[in-house]
Design brief:
Blueprint lengths: L5 E3 L2 E3 L35 E2 L14 E5 L13 E9 L2 E9 L3 E7 L6 E11 L2 E10 L2 E4 L4 E9 L2 E9 L11 E9 L12 E5 L3 E2 L11 E6 L48 E6 L5 E3 L14 E5 L13 E9 L2 E9 L3 E7 L6 E11 L2 E10 L2 E4 L4 E9 L2 E9 L11 E9 L12 E5 L3 E2 L12 E5 L7 E3 L3 E3 L2 E3 L3 E3 L5 E5 L6 E3 L14 E5 L13 E9 L2 E9 L3 E7 L6 E11 L2 E10 L2 E4 L4 E9 L2 E9 L11 E9 L12 E5 L3 E2 L13 E4 L8 E4 L3
Parallel strand pairs: 3-11, 18-26, 37-45
Antiparallel strand pairs: 1-2, 4-5, 5-6, 6-12, 7-8, 7-13, 8-9, 9-10, 11-12, 13-14, 13-15, 16-17, 19-20, 20-21, 21-27, 22-23, 22-28, 23-24, 24-25, 26-27, 28-29, 28-30, 31-36, 32-35, 33-34, 38-39, 39-40, 40-46, 41-42, 41-47, 42-43, 43-44, 45-46, 47-48, 47-49, 50-51
Length: about 725
């Protein structure tokens, strides 16, 4: 067969000649020759012919874009595993693809117009069908392949043992989602194939690039998946590789110049005693290069495919005519998540991911800054309102700036496993700040949205803004304070009048959400006296490790009158923390209750008055709890209202008590105090508090009763 001619069913087609219905069209004469651009969509033909020339690296970086794992491996000669994908623009949106990889089932190339791989993305599949390639086209959505006819033809393929290689030409349709109609992400995966039923297993990613312009043949793409494999003892995790012996004769046809001789390659079998499954965790390779975001950030898929939060609630950042702060997260695989953020700022917008309720304790933060009308991306750790730039595993960054509107999308690997039993649970925050494009300095974040802790892998989870802003502004012209006349020891002090300009004060009140999630990290003494106020009975007992009874309470100021609390104690019913603005505990004082409800924590808020608990809704959220026998532990965040009774709005007494709980009726018994502090400023983390409960027994005349007078509650 001469080059590019094909004999099929005894029909000979000379190279590239075509006669159509014997119609001849006379040439048209033009005075001016104008170059035209024609977009052609291929006619589908997925008949597979044998691939003569092995897939290789020829032309990589000059004529075609190539990606592989390991990087720079050559699929035409590699003696070890090599996963390879390449793309070359033929014309318009028609591209030639080559893929190669090891699988007993199939290999597949997925082309995604954005960073969300698996959102109904075009996928081309080459399966090992009894030693021959069978080709499929499909759409990949949430790891599920749905077969569909796509414009693809010129399919060639070969199978050599577990090695599958394919080439084909396909028409891509990327124009609806990107300004650049040839920009896409390339992925290569493997999976199982049942050649009896034709069913295809879930794809297992081996290579994934960032979004790149496929028309740029000199572009460089790298694998944004780094595989860390945990393997059992090498003595007992041995894999058997069968001997490969292959000689290929294809229908007695000799194909110059695409001929291939395979020299009976033998791979000696390895002996296996036990096969142990391996666990693979993927951590992204960092690449913070920003490409232009084609599709505006929006609410599509919120509550079904991704978790979304916004302020105002339900505002749409893609079309909102007014201010809209928005953040969304979607699990890609394992601890890799796709994020989208949008907000108005002349400086930057930032998303912070916190594994617990303490936002700003060295928490991962992703920052999109307005750098002279273009997005500049940073990653940092947020600690006590200070951003420290650091490299984090994040890539596929896209962004756009429109006036003060900044929008970004990116993919990041989260590391939450060290602090939570659920490695995908976190709190999401969105903030803004200033950015100096000359020095690169970032200002202090100003929170616009903050959620409670939620499992980010649950795309139908609901999150709301737990920050509600109430602003009190004094008249800037006259903020007159009058001190009334005081008479002390016959001394009269005239009232003092002062005119002062007072800055605006913003107080945030939490939105109530008492849903309890499992507490991953036991309550303990870490940070006592430096980051939080702690009290316990016995003093200095550690609730995280104590082998004996330990009643513990701690408080840490988050911002304003919002405080994080931790409590721990032994009870078959409930434990409760009471916060009193004065020394009279039990005068309608705020009380937070964690009850043992059949081995799980049930949370209540109440007012305590004369030893009686009256349930009432209070501003509290981010509740976590656990029960271990009689041990109950809880953490939560609450807004305190102490301003009406004290000059210092953060001063209070802390008490810890226990009581009975009837999980059938829900009734709570009378509190039994175990710890009570004096009044202390809760905003001072190095303050010391001790248990002020002591019992004094007075014995009267034996004819009269003996009375025990405890310290007044």
């Amino acid at each position: 067969m001469p080059p590019h001619s094909m004999t099929t069913n005894n029909m000979t087609m000379p190279p590239h000649s075509m006669t159509t219905n014997n119609m001849n069209t006379a040439p048209a004469t033009a005075t001016t020759t104008v170059a035209t651009t024609t977009n052609t969509t291929l006619i589908t033909n997925t008949t597979v012919i044998v691939l003569g020339t092995p897939v290789g690296r020829t032309g990589c970086g000059t004529q075609q874009i190539c990606g592989s794992e390991p990087s720079d491996c050559d699929p035409s000669s590699s003696s070890s595993s090599c996963f390879f994908v390449s793309a070359k623009q033929r014309d318009g949106q028609n591209f030639e693809f080559s893929i190669s990889g090891e699988s007993s089932g199939y290999i597949a190339a997925t082309v995604s117009a954005d960073t969300t791989v698996g959102g109904n993305d075009t996928t081309y599949i080459c399966a090992n069908n009894n030693g021959k390639v069978k080709f499929f086209s499909a759409l990949l959505d949430n790891d599920k392949l749905t077969l569909t006819e796509l414009p693809v033809n010129s399919v060639q393929g070969r199978v050599d043992g577990n090695l599958i290689q394919c080439t084909f030409v396909a028409t891509l349709d990327l124009s609806t989602t990107r300004a650049a109609a040839t920009s896409a992400s390339l992925s290569l995966s493997t999976g199982t194939f049942d050649n009896t039923s034709g069913s295809l297993g879930t794809p297992d990613s081996k290579f994934r690039s960032g979004v790149v312009d496929l028309s740029g043949s000199n572009a460089t793409i790298s694998n944004e998946l780094t595989t860390t494999t945990t393997t059992a003892n090498p003595m007992t995790n041995t894999m058997t590789t069968p001997t490969h012996s292959m000689t290929m004769t294809t229908n007695n046809m000799t194909m110059p110049p695409h001929s291939m001789t395979t020299n009976n390659m033998n791979t000696a079998p390895a002996t296996a005693t036990t096969t142990v499954a391996t666990t693979t965790n993927t951590t992204l390779i960092t690449n913070t290069t920003v490409i232009v975001l084609g599709t505006p950030v929006g609410r599509t898929g919120c509550g079904t495919q991704q978790i979304c939060g916004s302020e105002p609630s339900d505002c749409d950042p893609s079309s909102s005519s007014s201010s809209c702060f928005f953040v969304s997260a979607k699990q890609r695989d394992g601890q890799n998540f796709e994020f989208s953020i949008s907000g108005e700022s002349s400086g930057y917008i930032a998303a912070t991911v916190s594994a617990d309720t303490t936002v700003g304790g060295n928490d991962t933060t992703y920052i999109c800054a307005n750098n002279n009308g273009k997005v500049k991306f940073f990653s940092a750790l947020l600690d006590n309102d200070k951003l420290t730039l650091t490299e984090l595993p994040v890539n596929s960054v896209q962004g756009r700036v429109d006036g003060n509107l900044i929008q970004c999308t990116f993919v990041a690997t989260l590391d939450l496993s060290t602090t939570r039993a659920a490695a995908t649970s976190a709190s999401l925050s969105l903030s803004t700040g200033t950015f100096d494009s000359t020095s690169g300095s970032l200002g202090t974040p100003d929170s616009k949205f903050r959620s409670g802790v939620v499992d980010l892998s649950g795309s139908n989870a609901t999150i709301s803004n737990e920050l509600t802003t109430t602003t009190t502004t004094a008249n800037p012209m006259t903020n007159t304070m009058t001190t009334p006349t005081m008479t002390t020891n016959n001394m009269n002090t005239a009232p003092a009048t002062a005119t002062t300009t007072v800055a605006t004060t913003t107080n945030t009140t939490l939105i109530t959400n008492t849903t309890v999630i499992v507490l991953g990290t036991p309550v303990g003494r870490t940070g006592c006296g430096t980051q939080q106020i702690c009290g316990s009975e016995p003093s200095d007992c550690d609730p995280s490790s104590s082998s004996s009874s330990c009643f513990f309470v701690s408080a840490k100021q988050r911002d304003g009158q919002n405080f994080e609390f931790s409590i721990s104690g032994e009870s078959s019913g409930y434990i409760a923390a009471t916060v009193s603005a004065d020394t009279t505990v039990g005068g309608n004082d705020t009380t937070y209750i964690c009850a043992n409800n059949n081995g799980k924590v049930k949370f209540f808020s109440a007012l305590l008055d004369n030893d009686k608990l009256t349930l009432t809704e209070l501003p509290v959220n981010s509740v976590q709890g656990r029960v271990d026998g009689n041990l109950i532990q809880c953490t939560f965040v609450a807004t305190l209202d102490l301003s009406t009774t004290r000059a210092a709005a953060t001063s209070a007494s802390l008490s810890l008590s226990t009581g009975t709980f009837d999980n059938t009726s829900g009734s709570l018994g009378t509190p039994d105090s175990k710890f009570r502090s004096g009044v202390v400023d809760l905003s001072v983390s190095n303050a010391t508090i001790s248990n002020e409960l002591t019992t004094t027994t007075t014995t009267a005349n034996p004819m009269t009763n003996t009375m025990t007078t405890p310290t007044h509650t």
